[in-house]
Amino acid sequence: MHGPRTPVRKPWDVGDGQVAAAVGTTAQVLSVHGPHPRWGWVHLSSFLPFDESSRHDPDAVRAYRRRLEDPDGPGLRLTVQDLELVGRRWKKGAVPEFTYRGPHMTGQLTVFAADGRLLLWMRVRPAGSCAPRRVRARFEASWWVHRAAYAQITEGGPLPRPEATNYLRGAGGALVWESPGLPAWGVVWPVHTCLAQQGRGPLRVTWEEEWSLDAGEVHRVLAVQLFSRRPELCLPKPQVEELEAILERVVRDRLWVAPLPRNPRLRRFVHRQLVFVLDACAVGVDGATCLVTDPVLLPLSWNRDSYYMACLLGAAVRTGQGPLCQRARSALVGHLRWLFRVAQRPSGWWARSYLTGGAVKDPAYQLDQQWYPILEAVRAALDWGVAEAWREHGREVVDAARRLLEARHPNGLWPTSETPADDPLPLPYHFSSHVLAWRTLNLLAELDPGGPWRWEAARVRKASLAAFRAPDGTFAYATDGKRYLSYHDANDLPVACAPRWGFCSSKDPWWHKTVAFAWSTENPGFFAGPYGSLGSRHAPGPWTLGDLQAWIVGMCTADRARLRQAWHRLRRVAFDDDLLCESYDPHTGRPRTRAYFAWPGAAAAALLLGDPL
Predict the structure, then answer these.
(1) Are 301 and 352 in contact (CB under 8 A)?
(2) Are the beta carbons of 471 and 464 closer than 8 angstroms?
(3) Per-residue pLDDT tens over the stretch 202-240
(4) Strand 195-199 relative to strand 282-285: parallel, antiparallel, unpaired?
């Protein structure tokens, strides 16, 4: 690694908790998306359908995802005669703003979301006496309304494929894409064009307009909205005066008002993660809030991912003030309501992953995902100042914890079906999930001192130390009591956090040897190279979660060099909007898988705000 690396581009994301959008490098809107009551998530986009025959082919899944995250892909595009795009930036870290220049004109396009609508506001100004009196603008879109593909590496339960035929019509001053098979509608307005099309995929439309510059400046606004019920076509035309007030509010409500972090680069990083989580990943569902791990590639909710996103929300509530932190508090309270009241548990246990409406997507049982909701509720009350979390959910939390204790094997351990990477586990007992269980029980004892939680935590720790200490001097990744799996994975944050949480000392020889093994070529989860680091066999290559673990280990051991190295690595592999990928190439540092992956950035931002995770 030599010198600074130009950040890789990805689509920039906007939203308001009701609708979100991905915006490309040339200001084209790649996708407008949001929750759907039946199918979980729908897009109004140019994304092609996923080939269902490739549902269990990891290479095909990754190739499909790469097309979705391409910042130069097709979308709703506006071009103005003689204007050239010269730059894009984040307006106060809140909304994307694109700048145009021409021989005798300048332009500015701002893309933002408010009140469930995506708004595109183009302003063109004449420059000098030779400016034209009129200018032509061209709009084009190749879109359709469709259910999210949910293309997974380890498919856990394919959804039925809905009828995909779309109908596009221009009427009543709007363009309307309709998918009766969902049902869902996407509407763009004001647009005065007449047409009618149908097809099973993107439907292309273009139109031109002539704008007058006689008044010195021209404003053109487009609004985009998704509906799960047939919309009224008497939609209000956005007014410029109204837009100025809305944009001012949108930006103001996304300012990071807090004393930390003091370093400007760290402050920007925290701000970007928080805005992304709240705008694009936290969606309102029947008075609750679902946290999806990403809004484009895999808009599902995992309790694990959402817990670390909740850590950022909680740290923001504890650290900051103002509208952005109030939104964080509301999202946190709403997410607990979603976990305990909306997410279905048909077998009595939380599932691997969920659609936004709470229906189970993948029913596999993972032990850590049973403990994360309990831990989130407990920490909300203890650490994040959200006392109503315990008042509203205390009984449900205690019931869930008691049920887990009753399901424990007589050996003091819990079996699990899959790893935190969603992969099958060859041995039944998983170490990091037991560290997590111990921590949750310990904290639960502080809220319910009359319960058995402290004693049960001690019992879990004793059983874990006896079971997972492998003959090689490490904590085994998994065991059956006789065999030991030598492996460490970037998804297993509780192992790195064990000393920080108090499960063991930072000088514990078993933990030290486990950490040394994790960052060695003996570990199948380590990937060597100039950008070598801890990763996962789930997606071969170093993971940003591995760098996050290195950061935590540096904090636990007071190793400032390791801490700095981990942070610098995260900064080097971050995208141009400061978000983090899933994995990257060990030789080049370029993102390899999942440009959209909220929880590494959220967890890193929470750490920067002093949260112990």
Answers:
(1) no
(2) no
(3) 999 999 999 999 888 999 999 999 999 999 877 777 788
(4) unpaired
